[in-house]
Amino acid sequence: MHSRRTLRSRRIATLGASLTLVFCLGALPLASQAQSSYQSLQRQSLDRIVAVVNDGAIMASDLEERVAQTRSQLEARDEQLPPERVLREQMLDRMIVEQIQLQMARESGLSVDDTDLNRQMRRIAERNGMSLEQFADALEADGLTLAEVREQIRREMLLSQVQQREIGSRVNISEGEVERFMEEQGASREQARQALFQRRANEELEVWVQEIRSRAFIDNRLAER
Q: CA-CA distance, 91 to 80, in Å (whole number)?
């Protein structure tokens, strides 16, 4: 049973490599579902806030979900896991930044159209060599629903909108930079533009993240017992 569960988690981690997906470690046998539901209710009743971000909050249960997700993805790619405490801190920090960006999206009235969302779902399925129906079946085999994954992808697309809006206007590339890159790397003009834009955008993104963090009210309670 343990072997089957591990294989399932690795398969879903591979499916989610191109986009963050929330997943569990395989479906439980029917005989244990009642016990699992009871334990889930217990966890909810004992849930606590691990961070306050402006007018929002991040719950311990959400953090543990993200930690488990990331751990499985790293294991699926045979990458070394950081210490548990470090992984939890890293995931919470990422969730705090995401929370700030989602609040910015809400305040700006940004949204993801269902047509664009459906198109992105099909792209992800196709990248994994599946139809949308097969993709839904693969997710269901790991205890997920297509609706859950749709909402996760919607959130990722919304974050992308915020970043593109805020970072795009900061990136300026001169023709001189393009020419130098072409000479040094032997790249075409389009390749040079894309590479330079991506490099500059990543640099600006790091600066912007620090800016929005400094302006936000953040109360990190992870160390509290």
A: 16
What residue has token string 């790293």? Answer: 74
Rounded Cα–Cα distance for residues 61 and 43 (Å): 8
Quick one: CA torsion of 99, 104, 108, 110, rounded to 10 degrees? -40
Tokens representing 159 are: 């974050």
Distance in angstroms (rounded) separating the CA atoms of residues 158 and 79: 28
CA angle 204–222–13, rounded 5-degree value: 65
Give per-residue pLDDT as tens, 25-61: 222 333 333 444 434 444 554 689 999 999 999 999 9
Quick: pLDDT tens for 158-201.
Answer: 999 999 999 988 999 999 999 999 999 999 999 999 999 999 99
Q: Describe the strand order of the beta sheet including 56-59 as a list of residue ranges.
A: 56-59, 49-53, 218-220
> How many CB atoms neighbour CB 136 within 10 A?
19
Note if the pTM is more than 0.85: no
Tell me if 50 sits within 8 A of 92, measured CB to CB: yes
- Taking residues 100-104, report their average pLDDT: 96
Give the integer Cα–Cα distance in Å for 184 and 175. 14
For residue 31, give both structure tokens. Answer: 């005989």
Q: Which domains does the chain have, with CATH numbers?
A: 2-220 (1.10.4030.10)
Cβ atoms of 204 and 35 closer than 8 Å: no
